[in-house]
From TrEMBL, chain A:
This is Twin-arginine translocation signal domain-containing protein. It comes from Nocardioides lentus. It comes from the Bacteria. InterPro entries: TAT_signal.
UniProtKB/TrEMBL annotation, chain B:
The lineage of its organism: Bacteria, Bacillati, Actinomycetota, Actinomycetes, Propionibacteriales. Residues 420-433 have a biased composition (Polar residues). It comes from Nocardioides lentus. It holds the Pfam family DUF4331. InterPro entries: DUF4331 (IPR025566). It comes from the Bacteria. Residues 413-461 are annotated as: Disordered. This is DUF4331 domain-containing protein.
Length: 86, 461
């Protein structure tokens, strides 16, 4: 089930960024990571994030049996930067 | 066939590959319907030490439509869980498995059944046993009794999930060698000597999910219809398998883990539809789709490639079929809408105008007892057989070959005369494991020890 909302993005995005930071930490500044505040209803399990089209603002987050679709060009670009880092 | 390895994607994922679906009013319990969904095709019985089993990562479902909209109004969901008792042994079993709780069985599997109706989920059973595969006389003695002990009654419904013999029969080796039917070899474009058919699934096994449910639990008004012409007498049935949207390999353990929504990867209602009618470039999409959206595939039912190929592969045998250029309303009725009243005397299984691939079972038509069944079903005058649902012993290849070749066109177009050979078509095979007379109606699987690998006939080359 897709769920597009800013609130969902905020909840799930923190975990997604955290997961990606394991392999692409260079693209995330310390201040960006530090500014994220965990929310009470954030995901507390494995999250898979993917960007189906690098030219758009769409980010898909897979968590448990759900798919959350968020729209945030800034986050997508940061993920692309992370993915492109060596 | 009927849906073994029928599409490119699912051929790479046998545990989710739905091979056959059966739905029939139970001859020995005519107030019930039996539905069987088979998965995991063409199992070699001796395929150890990691024998075949349901996948813990696949969601198996049986769908029933009872409101004429081709939606899953009633869904039975099956999720499996495998336990490894001794990870330090490479063996499936360390001694004879004489009971389902035998400590000698190193890899027991259980399952959970959930019923979904009107959006409500009800767990009907947890930890239900799957019997072991039929390893051989030392490992699984008294296999029949062991398997029977795995049947469970929940919510007035009998369930069984486990390995069974594949009752289907088809000459895959010949049919996919340029559409050849061995008994008609001499008439083929590339002629060879005629011979009997060879059943390619002989001695192979499948994994079956079977249920025997009271009719008054699956019909729209929760009753047992007696008027076969009532629009509520027919239910639609199909089965699916789904996997999580994302699957990631863990290099540390060599295993994978799924995340995200369940995504359908296999679907089966009518036999042979995706296998034979849907073109290669659409097969995977068909497997991922819903029956209610099958209008997108109507052109392949109304104008099947096979009907155009038969006159080419068998020159001068099908002149009337070759000349027939109308949409195949007969096939559309049989496969996509059900047969309306007035087409076949005393019969209908019409579910409305929605184009949808489902087995359509008119539950008000009494079952034919096994000794009186005609394997050609409705075409053979037996209204309790395919395409009124599907029984284990219905000769699906024969029925559909003849239907595609034009035998059923006169039902909707009385001016058409079928070619003489059309009503004789067969691949020349018979089931090696015909259906039985009691639930789950499929024979015990072939044993690993008892089965000899096939032979290669050098034949013409």
């Amino acid at each position: 089930m897709s769920d597009t909302s800013r609130r969902s993005f905020i909840a799930a995005g923190g975990v997604g960024v955290g997961a990606l930071a394991i392999t692409g930490a260079g693209a995330f500044t310390a201040s960006a990571s530090a500014s994220a505040t965990p929310s009470a209803d954030r995901a507390k399990e494995r999250v898979v994030a993917f960007v189906p089209d690098h030219t758009t603002d769409e980010l898909h987050l897979l968590v448990d049996e759900r798919e959350v679709v968020v729209h945030d060009r800034d986050l997508v670009v940061r993920l692309l930067n992370a993915a492109g880092s060596r | 066939m009927s849906s073994h390895r029928e599409a490119p994607e699912i051929s790479q994922d046998p545990a989710a590959d739905n091979t056959d679906v059966y739905a029939f009013v139970s001859p020995d319990k005519p107030d019930t319907v039996t539905i069987i969904a088979n998965f995991l095709p063409l199992q070699q019985p001796y395929g150890g030490p990691n024998f075949y089993e349901f996948s813990d990562d696949v969601r198996y479902r049986i769908h029933i439509s009872n409101q004429g909209t081709a939606q899953g109004d009633l869904i039975y969901e099956f999720l499996f869980e495998t336990t490894v008792r001794n990870p330090d042994s490479f063996l499936y079993n360390t001694g004879p498995i004489e009971t389902l709780d035998s400590e000698n069985w190193n890899r027991p599997q259980t399952y959970t059944i959930t019923k979904i109706e009107n959006g409500r989920r009800s767990v009907l059973g947890r930890g239900l046993p799957v019997p072991p595969v039929n390893v051989g006389p030392r490992s699984t003695p008294n296999y029949g009794e062991l398997a029977r002990s795995a049947r469970r009654l929940r919510n007035r419904t009998w369930f069984f999930a486990g390995q069974r013999a594949d009752a289907f029969n088809v000459d895959l080796g010949s049919i996919f060698d340029l559409g050849a039917l061995r008994p008609f070899n001499e008439a083929h474009l590339i002629p060879m000597a005629a011979m009997d058919g060879v059943n390619s699934v002989q001695a192979t096994n499948v994994h079956s999910i079977a249920m025997q449910v009271p009719i008054d639990m699956i019909t729209r008004f929760k009753n047992q219809p007696t008027n076969r012409f009532s629009p509520h007498a027919t239910v639609g049935v199909w089965a699916t398998a789904s996997r999580r949207q994302s699957r990631m390999q863990d290099p540390a353990t060599g295993t994978s883990v799924g995340t995200g929504p369940w995504v359908q990867v296999s679907r089966l209602g009518n036999p042979l539809v995706n296998e034979v009618l849907i073109p290669m470039g659409q097969k995977d999409r068909w497997n991922a789709g819903r029956p209610a959206a099958d209008a997108a595939f109507r052109e392949y039912v109304d104008s099947p490639e096979l009907a155009r190929l038969l006159p080419v592969l068998y020159p001068d045998v099908f002149p009337n079929l070759a000349a027939y250029d109308k949409p195949r309303a007969d096939l559309n009725a049989i496969l996509h809408t059900g047969i309306p009243r007035g087409v076949v005397p005393e019969f209908q299984n019409f579910t409305g105008a929605t184009q949808a691939d489902m087995l359509r079972l008119n539950v008000a038509i009494p079952p034919t007892q096994p000794e009186d069944q005609n394997p050609f079903g409705v075409v053979g005058g037996d209204l309790a057989g395919f395409p009124n649902g599907r029984r284990v012993n219905d000769d699906i290849v024969g029925i559909e070959l003849r239907a595609v070749a034009g035998v059923t066109i006169p039902l909707v177009d009385p001016e058409y005369t079928p070619d003489e050979t059309a009503s004789q078509l067969t691949d020349g095979t018979q089931s090696a494991a015909p259906g039985t007379d009691s639930f789950p109606y499929l024979q015990d699987p072939s044993g690993g020890y008892q089965t000899r690998p096939g032979t290669v006939d050098e034949g013409e080359n």
